[in-house]
């Protein structure tokens, strides 16, 4: 989960802060000190994550593109310059552009906005942006919510009391709500000093950047691992009293499945799994990421001398083309697999499924799976020519009746045209006409598409008025009858809109 750090370099950040009667510091100095603390923590615990640094005032600038080099980020902090007024909206447009160019719209991202709580003045201020956001056209939309999943953390180099004296806190809370509410606002407690800013960034680290350590078990083998990013709790909506499901720190491999049988499973989230060895460099070697360690051969040598089950697992899954089924908690599963970032680099990844005993329907219940050795015969055949998946249900379902589904407008148009073609051939096509009419009627009632019934009724009445003089008299009666029945059904009255009811042809003296 990449992180964008958005640093406020407007003039309000240069306001002085007196520290115990000593030399004066600026709020910007406190912010830089806090960010250095964050970068040092990420360099020690989140080396595989990408981070970028942007500065903004009335304009925005990308100081450091997404990188794992935290020294470059800290060097850029030390050379920050001061600019003019605050314009948060322009900076948010910059974040949206930078993230989409690098990661697209599917990758989750974290944004750390560091500011003093000054919202700017006049046009371009956050206050003005939030007031006018509903009065704009599509070409000048407010950038939040972003088109990609985002967690927003606002770090205010100011106290909560200072922000509440104006409407700054209300506007920042509104900004957080618009972003999806998945984030937090942090303020300084106590006097504005180095100790307070350290405490504030410490709370951010505990909340969003605390590492997730676990133990990966497989039979008698085990390995200490670290998971990036930290798995979030999941709430199952179907439960009567939903409780957050938390990934266990004991990850148990319960079996291995071929990649072809897993296919492309629906996953809640994806995570990078690194082995924890003697030092951090060994972790990266263990996942195949050796290109970053060319200047540290001692780390590679050490990795070769220290056996690690996680490294063995990653290599085995990569060579054999299989995935490991891992239990994350009670009736909650995921898979471990090898994913290549490039031709020379691959990582051990973990995908989390939806909690439940049957997350992938084609595999059946996970608890029913077992080793091939316990089967009466090899379910894959002697030459791996067949597969036991998908699991067939015990009760054979009947697919005699086709289900009407309108995914595109062309499908609906085709069904309506079919009714009209049969309507023009009445009475010869009476049975086919009513069969297609009842099929459309049932689908419209199932979807609550009352307007469709009224529209088709109008079309049938129009066809009735356009019948030529040579038309059979029965055609006009049948069209009027069908139109009237559709109009009654479109009212939603249970007497006429019963789903199981079929419109029967009108009995006339002309019918055979």
What key phrases describe this protein's structure?
six-stranded mixed sheet, seven-stranded mixed beta barrel, alpha/beta, 512 residues, 35% helix
Walkthrough of the structure:
The chain is α/β, with parallel strands linked by helices. It has 15 helices and 15 strands. The chain has helices at residues 27-45, 70-78, 88-103, 126-132, 160-164, 168-178, 194-208, 259-262, 280-286, 297-305, 309-320, 409-423, 430-447, 450-465, 473-490; strands spanning 3-8, 16-18, 24-26, 51-56, 60-67, 109-115, 150-159, 183-188, 212-218, 221-228, 250-258, 269-275, 322-329, 332-340, 346-352. Strands 9-10-12-15-14-13-11 form a seven-stranded mixed beta barrel. Helix 1 runs antiparallel to helix 2, helix 9 packs across helix 10 (297-305) and helix 14 runs antiparallel to helix 15 (473-490). The termini are far apart. The model is unreliable at 278-303 (pLDDT under 50).
- Taken in chain order, the helices and strands follow as EEEHEEHHEHEHHEHEEEHEHHHEEEHHHH
Give the radius of gyration.
Answer: 32 Å
pLDDT averaged residue by residue: 83
| First-last Cα distance | 72 Å
The total count of helices amounts to: 15
Structural category is alpha/beta
**What overall form do the CA principal axes indicate?**
flat
Model regions low in confidence, pLDDT < 50 over at least 5 residues: 278-303
Number of strands: 15
- Overall helicity: 25-40%
Strand order of the largest sheet: 9-10-12-15-14-13-11
Largest sheet: 7 strands, mixed, barrel
- Note the beta-strand portion: 15-25%
């Amino acid at each position: 989960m990449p992180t964008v750090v958005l640093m406020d370099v407007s003039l309000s950040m240069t306001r002085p802060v007196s520290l115990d009667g000593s030399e004066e510091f600026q709020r910007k100095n406190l912010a830089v000190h806090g960010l250095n603390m964050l970068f040092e923590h990420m360099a020690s615990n989140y080396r595989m994550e990408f981070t970028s640094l942007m500065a903004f005032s009335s304009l925005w600038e990308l100081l450091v593109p997404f990188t794992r080099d935290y020294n470059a980020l800290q060097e850029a902090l030390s050379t920050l310059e001061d600019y003019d007024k605050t314009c948060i909206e322009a900076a948010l447009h910059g974040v949206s552009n930078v993230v989409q160019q690098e990661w697209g719209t599917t990758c989750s991202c974290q944004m750390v906005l560091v500011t003093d709580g000054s919202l700017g003045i006049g046009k371009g201020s956050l206050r003005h942006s939030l007031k006018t956001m509903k009065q704009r056209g599509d070409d000048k939309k407010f950038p939040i919510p972003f088109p990609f999943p985002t967690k927003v953390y606002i770090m205010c180099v100011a106290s909560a009391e200072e922000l509440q004296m104006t409407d700054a806190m209300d506007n920042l809370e509104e900004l957080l709500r618009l972003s999806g509410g998945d984030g937090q606002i942090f303020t300084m407690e106590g006097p504005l000093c180095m100790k307070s800013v350290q405490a504030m960034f410490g709370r951010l680290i505990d909340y969003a950047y605390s590492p997730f350590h676990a133990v990966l078990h497989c039979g008698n083998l085990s390995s200490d691992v670290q998971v990036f990013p930290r798995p979030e709790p999941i709430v199952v909506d179907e439960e009567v009293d939903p409780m957050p499901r938390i990934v266990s720190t004991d990850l148990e491999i319960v079996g291995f499945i071929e990649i072809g049988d897993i296919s492309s499973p629906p996953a809640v989230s994806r995570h990078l799994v690194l082995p924890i060895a003697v030092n951090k460099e060994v972790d990266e070697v263990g996942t195949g990421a050796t290109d970053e360690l060319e200047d540290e051969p001692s780390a590679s040598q050490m990795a070769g001398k220290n056996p690690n089950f996680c490294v063995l697992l990653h290599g085995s899954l990569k060579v054999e083309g299989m995935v490991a089924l891992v239990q994350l908690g009670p009736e909650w599963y995921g898979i471990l697999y090898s994913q290549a970032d490039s031709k020379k680099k691959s990582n051990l990844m973990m995908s989390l499924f939806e909690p439940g005993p049957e997350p992938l329907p084609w595999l059946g219940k996970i608890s029913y799976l077992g080793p091939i050795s316990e089967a009466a015969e090899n379910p894959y055949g002697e030459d791996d020519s067949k597969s036991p998946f998908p699991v067939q249900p015990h009760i054979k379902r009947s697919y005699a009746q086709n289900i009407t589904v309108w995914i595109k407008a062309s499908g609906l148009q085709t069904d309506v045209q079919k009714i009209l073609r049969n309507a023009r051939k009445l009475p010869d096509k009476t049975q086919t006409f009513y069969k297609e009419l009842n099929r459309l009627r049932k689908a419209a009632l199932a979807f609550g598409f009352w307007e469709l019934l009224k529209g088709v009724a109008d079309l049938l009445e129009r066809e009735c008025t356009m019948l030529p003089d040579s038309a059979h008299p029965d055609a006009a009666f049948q069209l009027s009858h069908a139109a009237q029945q559709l109009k009654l059904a479109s009212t939603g009255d249970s007497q006429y809109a019963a789903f199981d009811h079929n419109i029967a042809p009108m009995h006339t003296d002309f019918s055979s």
